[in-house]
């Protein structure tokens, strides 16, 4: 098609699009190279078996953070035949950079023989991880048994505190599978701020009346979504010595601001600091557009949004920037209110004839 029009700077526009597009390719290639974020300090191991060990945790001297009240040393021992991370002798199954740690916590088991004589068991327990707190949202405290009561003791607002629950049943037909509401199983929510935790499972009558289907009392913390009570547990939990639970971790016992003033502050570049409840420290988090380990000096690195998911619309190309991204139109298109529409390419010829300038524009789609 051939026609006359005032084409303005159309030709230049498509030139610009082309140039930018070449620039885009280069940025994309450069960004793709920096994807694996470091988790640990330089020259430090960042895993133990299949568990990631992000700093402030570490497995060897010089690789973890030491605090007066808390050490982040993970013992990565191979004595069981495969690498097993432990903290204060508790098996660790996952450490999240967001401030959680999944562990396998011992349960309190209190068993009797048929005549009511207590068997040697694992009764009174303390939570052996000082200054890592029990997640009140992710865990429940549970007792299982039909001649059972339990105490959960500790310190709350600097004073001793006791709570607990009980379950007394006489016939296994009373048990409702899937329901832990007082028949064969009871649970309590964990009070926020509970420290120096101790707990145990006890029996009123040494299980004499229920021994045939329930010879033991059990008490344990367990990750809420990993527990559904069943009749079989009245006997089988003897074989479950540990249960999955979630601990919370944080840095220090002071706020971001106090830590900054004292020079204790460790959040790295491009990160934000947030205070926990007072006296329980602070956490670091990468700013929006960044990802990685915010507890390392340069741990938060730019996310290549363009590589993560489809961010742009049809006929657009995604351009990563430090901390964000933007979308450009592909060649031959230009933006009209965020959408890319075809640009008409055109060629303008100026023709001077005497005093007149003729302007001819050839457009093609
Ligand atoms: C890491 O180890 C290498 C060789 O083992 C050494 O040359 C380098 O200095 C170490 N870097 C740090 C930060 O310790
Ligand atoms: C924080 O921990 C230090 C060292 O363990 C201790 O001396 C201090 O009293 C603690 N502060 C608070 C507010 O708990
Ligand atoms: C690490 O754990 C192993 C096996 O439980 C134990 O033998 C070793 O003493 C522990 N090391 C430290 C430093 O606690
Ligand atoms: C918990 O407190 C109760 C009441 O004070 C006490 O009888 C019990 O022995 C305590 N249990 C543990 C495990 O500390
Ligand atoms: C409860 O589950 C056990 C197995 O754990 C099963 O033997 C029993 O029949 C179930 N009871 C009911 C009422 O569904
Ligand atoms: C108890 O152990 C058995 C066998 O390992 C496992 O299938 C079950 O899920 C465990 N129960 C709980 C509540 O963790
Ligand atoms: C985190 O950083 C962002 C941007 O740098 C800022 O707007 C926000 O207020 C910060 N949040 C906190 C809790 O410091
Ligand atoms: C700590 O919490 C208590 C109540 O839980 C509150 O009275 C106090 O002001 C808080 N202190 C700080 C420094 O936030």
Provide structural commentary:
With 365 residues, this protein is mostly beta strands. The protein is built from four helices and 26 strands. The chain folds into three domains: 2-32 and 318-364, no CATH class; 47-94 and 256-302, no CATH class; 100-248, no CATH class. The protein has helices at 10-33, 233-236, 256-262, 305-308, and strands at residues 47-48, 51-52, 75-77, 84-87, 90-96, 100-106, 108-111, 125-126, 133-134, 139-144, 147-156, 159-168, 185-188, 195-202, 216-223, 242-248, 271-275, 282-286, 290-292, 300-302, 316-321, 324-329, 333-336, 339-342, 345-353, 356-364. It has a six-stranded antiparallel sheet, with no helix packed on it. It binds 2-acetamido-2-deoxy-beta-D-glucopyranose (8 copies). One 2-acetamido-2-deoxy-beta-D-glucopyranose binds at residues 75, 77, 79.
Which keywords apply here?
365 residues; mainly beta; 3 domains; 6-stranded antiparallel sheet; 4-stranded antiparallel sheet; 4 helices; 26 strands; 11% helix; elongated; disordered N terminus; binds 2-acetamido-2-deoxy-beta-D-glucopyranose
């Amino acid at each position: 098609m051939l026609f006359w029009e005032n084409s303005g700077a159309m030709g230049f526009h498509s030139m610009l699009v082309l140039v930018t597009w070449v620039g885009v390719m280069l940025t994309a290639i450069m960004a793709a190279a920096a994807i694996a974020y470091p988790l640990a300090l330089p020259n430090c191991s960042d895993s133990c078996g299949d568990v990631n060990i992000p700093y402030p945790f570490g497995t060897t001297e010089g690789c973890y953070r030491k605090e007066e009240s808390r050490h982040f040393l993970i013992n990565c021992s191979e004595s069981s035949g495969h690498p097993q991370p432990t903290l204060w002798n508790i098996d660790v199954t996952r450490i999240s950079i967001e401030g959680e740690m999944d562990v396998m916590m011992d349960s309190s088991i209190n068993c009797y023989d048929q005549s009511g004589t207590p068997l040697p068991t694992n009764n009174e327990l303390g939570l052996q991880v000082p200054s890592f707190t029990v997640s009140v949202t992710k865990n429940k405290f549970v007792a299982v048994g039909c001649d059972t009561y339990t105490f959960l003791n500790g310190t709350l607002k600097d004073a001793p505190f006791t709570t607990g629950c009980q379950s007394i049943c006489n016939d296994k037909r009373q048990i409702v599978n899937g329901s832990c509401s007082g028949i064969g199983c009871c649970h309590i929510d964990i009070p926020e701020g509970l420290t120096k935790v101790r707990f145990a499972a006890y029996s009123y009558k040494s299980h004499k009346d229920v021994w045939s289907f329930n010879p033991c009392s059990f008490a344990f913390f367990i990750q809420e979504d990993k527990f559904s009570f069943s009749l079989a547990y009245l006997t089988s939990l003897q074989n479950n010595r540990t249960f999955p639970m979630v601990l919370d971790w944080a840095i220090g016992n002071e706020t971001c601001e106090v830590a900054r003033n004292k020079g204790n502050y460790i959040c790295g570049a491009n990160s934000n600091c947030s205070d926990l409840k007072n006296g329980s420290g602070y956490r670091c988090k990468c700013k929006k557009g960044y990802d990685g380990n915010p507890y390392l000096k340069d741990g938060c690195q730019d996310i290549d949004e363009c590589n993560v998911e489809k961010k742009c619309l049809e006929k657009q190309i995604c351009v990563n920037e430090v901390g964000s991204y933007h979308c450009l139109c592909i060649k031959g298109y230009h933006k009209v209110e965020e959408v890319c529409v075809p640009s008409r390419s055109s060629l303008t010829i100026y023709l001077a004839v005497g005093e007149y300038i003729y302007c001819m524009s050839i457009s093609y789609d």
